[in-house]
Design a protein that fits this description.
The protein has helices at about 5-15, 25-30, 55-60, 65-75, 100-120, 130-140, 150, 175-180, 180-195; strands at about 35-40, 45-50, 85-90, 125, 155-160, 165-170. The chain is of the alpha/beta class. It has one domain (about 1-195): 3-Layer(aba) Sandwich (Uracil-DNA Glycosylase, subunit E). A hairpin with a 2-residue loop joins strand 5 and strand 6. Helix 1 packs antiparallel against helix 5 (about 100-120). It is globular, with a radius of gyration of 16 Å. The protein binds uracil. The site of uracil has 11 residues, from loops.
């Protein structure tokens, strides 16, 4: 099956997730699920936590304030956003930007797994501790997990069903919005990605 068709199936199934604890909130607020965006041939795949307000309103990942900073990070190493794939673990907006619950992560995680399998990226950049934890467990290296404060900017190697993958945990771009120190750390850590372009 073609990649685009496989991704369309993922999209349709998420759209029809009426059993999700976030479904009612989606409908009441006219939010859209945020499936992900970018190249289905991307070598570099970004995973955030869950859509924010702007993302829910538009259906596009990282299009609000965090997304602006992510764009700045991409520009800092000359990486074209369209050459990457960007999504989050949870595809519907949690109420008031709260952290997604373990149940929500367990419900939406398998869609992310399918997206990895469709795109088969070489490098997965984990934006924040929620995606870091989820993907490290999937990649069989949960024993390496520590706090994001310890792990950010370091390169790890894991294995997904399709093969070996480089994992790079970073602070979530939202961390840069309230602390300029985090912004400098994120930009510095991000230079590692350049090695894989
Ligand atoms: N934060 C995320 O983790 N994902 C988005 O898509 C937007 C903000």
């Amino acid at each position: 099956m073609k990649k685009a068709l496989m991704m369309k199936h993922v999209e349709d199934e998420i759209a029809a997730l009426t059993g999700s604890p976030l479904y009612e909130y989606r409908i009441e607020n006219n939010y859209m699920p945020v499936i992900g965006e970018g190249s289905l041939d991307a070598n570099i795949f970004f995973v955030g936590e869950a859509p924010g307000k702007k993302e829910g309103e538009t259906g596009k990942p990282f299009c609000g304030r965090s997304g602006k900073f992510l764009d700045e990070m991409l520009a800092s190493i000359g990486l074209d956003r369209n050459a990457t794939y960007i999504t989050s673990v949870v595809k519907d907006r949690p109420q008031d930007n709260r952290d997604p619950t373990p149940q929500e992560i367990a419900l939406y995680g398998p869609y992310l797994d399918r997206q990895f399998e469709i795109i088969q990226p070489k490098v997965i950049v984990l934006l924040g501790r929620i995606s870091m934890k989820y993907v490290f467990e999937k990649a069989g290296i949960k024993e390496k997990l520590d706090t994001i404060g310890v792990m950010h900017g370091k390169v790890y190697e894991g294995t997904l069903p399709y093969g070996k993958v480089i994992l790079l945990p970073l602070y979530h771009p939202a961390a840069a919005l309230y602390n300029p120190k985090n912004k400098a750390v994120l930009l510095e850590d991000f230079k590692v990605v350049k090695k894989y372009l």
